[in-house]
Amino acid sequence: MKVPLYVGLFWYIPVYTISTITSPVPAMALFGFFNKEKKESLDKGLEKTKTSFFDQLSKAVVGKSKVDEEVLDELETVLVHADVGIGTTVKIIDRIEQRVARDKYVGTSDLDRILREEIMSLLEENKGGVAADFSLPDTGGKPYVIMVVGVNGVGKTTTIGKLASQFHNAGKKVVLGAGDTFRAAAVDQLKIWGDRVGIPVIDHGMNTDPASVAYDAVKKGVEMGADVVIIDTAGRLHTKVGLMNELSKIKRVMQKVIEDAPQEVLLVLDGSTGQNAVIQAREFTKATEVTALAVTKLDGTAKGGVIIGISDEFKIPVKYIGVGEKVEDLQVFDKREFVDSLFSKK
């Protein structure tokens, strides 16, 4: 009996099972931090992407029973429109073509399941999702220093505030450094976050040396026995050389206090800009060593597929995603939950 098309398109693996283990295990047992509220927030935040994606996918396979060259061409268009990116889209299509050739007959009712598996496979390969919660690596008693980079308007300072709040709520001692000294709004915004949560914010005002702010923030972190120091940086799109020199200087002065600082360079990208976020990632990865990504504003866009393309192209883990306005809507990226939400029928 053929499976109805609409069932195939919304084929769903229950959240309480994990396909890579031999027997069903409650997802909460493996990912206890991902509670019902976070899951609902993630589902809601990805709603526009999911709706757009499945609407287009439905049109691509209407009247078709078999995954053939025409269906694959249509699928390629769907993935590109979802801002997965050309390179990653070609990779996914090639993998599906290989599966079709191997299995001889693949029905369109299987297409979303195959897509789900291939996207999960890409995220697994590219280190997507690196933490289970807002815990921190062992640094031998030193503060864990995070330098945050990204252009103006991506939600960089808001992301820092939300990060600081969640670290604080997890029982961590936090210090913030207002290193975006070229924008009064950035300094003021960070101070508001600090006052709201009760976290010290080191600032020298506008048009001052950001490296000096970073030095004093790290020094303050050491003095008070902080667990984490988060440094904001200027969000201007400099020339590559100017950006590289500025970020290198900030690193050098922090290393006078903690020799391996910053232990993390977090690049914040606006997911709603789609492929423009990819362009920004290219520029920043050329200018400095980026070790983690935060993708914001996914709740306001149908371009959530950009996470897949960014992860695949840069081989840098997506560590956080923003799926709403609330503090807790900045979530640690969990690749399984992300794919589950993207392909769920709800």
Automatic annotation (TrEMBL):
Catalytic activity: GTP + H2O = GDP + phosphate + H(+)
Signal peptide: none
Catalytic class of the enzyme: hydrolase
GO biological process: SRP-dependent cotranslational protein targeting to membrane
Primary localisation category: membrane
Segments forming domain SRP54-type proteins GTP-binding: 317-330
InterPro entries: AAA+_ATPase, P-loop_NTPase, Signal_recog_particl_SRP54_hlx, SR_rcpt_FtsY, SRP/SRP_N, SRP54_GTPase_dom, SRP54_N_sf
Membrane topology classification: Peripheral membrane protein
TM regions (residue ranges): 12-34
Residues given in the record as GTP binding sites: 150-157, 232-236, 296-299
GO molecular function term, any single one: GTP binding
Enzyme Commission number(s): 3.6.5.4
Protein keywords: Cell membrane, Cytoplasm, GTP-binding, Hydrolase, Membrane, Nucleotide-binding, Receptor, Transmembrane, Transmembrane helix
Entry's localization field: Cell membrane; Cytoplasm
Gene Ontology terms: cellular component: cytoplasm; plasma membrane
PROSITE patterns linked to this entry: SRP54
PANTHER family the record matches: SIGNAL RECOGNITION PARTICLE RECEPTOR SUBUNIT ALPHA
Entry function: Involved in targeting and insertion of nascent membrane proteins into the cytoplasmic membrane. Acts as a receptor for the complex formed by the signal recognition particle (SRP) and the ribosome-nascent chain (RNC).
Protein family (similarity comment): Belongs to the GTP-binding SRP family. FtsY subfamily.
HAMAP family according to UniProt: FtsY
Protein's UniProt name: Signal recognition particle receptor FtsY
Lineage of origin: Bacteria, Pseudomonadati, Bacteroidota, Cytophagia, Cytophagales
Gene this protein is translated from: ftsY
